[in-house]
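Notebook entry, structure prediction.
Reason for the run: the old model in the group folder had no record of what sequence produced it. Starting over properly, with the input documented here first.
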Amino acid sequence: MVDISKLSRDELEDLKVQIDKRMAEVEKEQKDAALAEMREIAQRHGVTLEEIVQMERASASPTGALPKYRDPENPKNTWTGRGRKPKWLVLALEEGANIEDFAI
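New structure, fully documented this time:
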């Protein structure tokens, strides 16, 4: 282990940059490994990961319809384009936004 107590501010800054870079690399490696594992599991069950994601999205909607619009301020807010527009969308449109700005 490195004794950082004797490092200068510049050396500490350089070390921080290296650590941040490595953390990003490790995070990407972990996500890639998780994705590969999920694809392998899906394949064993005869489906693609994309089909599973689509099924999950459809089951999240009471109508089974996939959302067509998403609130960039809160990604949990979605709308399928059916029925009344949700309040978050109505407010955004009243403020001058274009509905296509929210298309998924």
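Summary: The two ends are 47 Å apart (CA to CA).
The old model has been moved to the deprecated folder.
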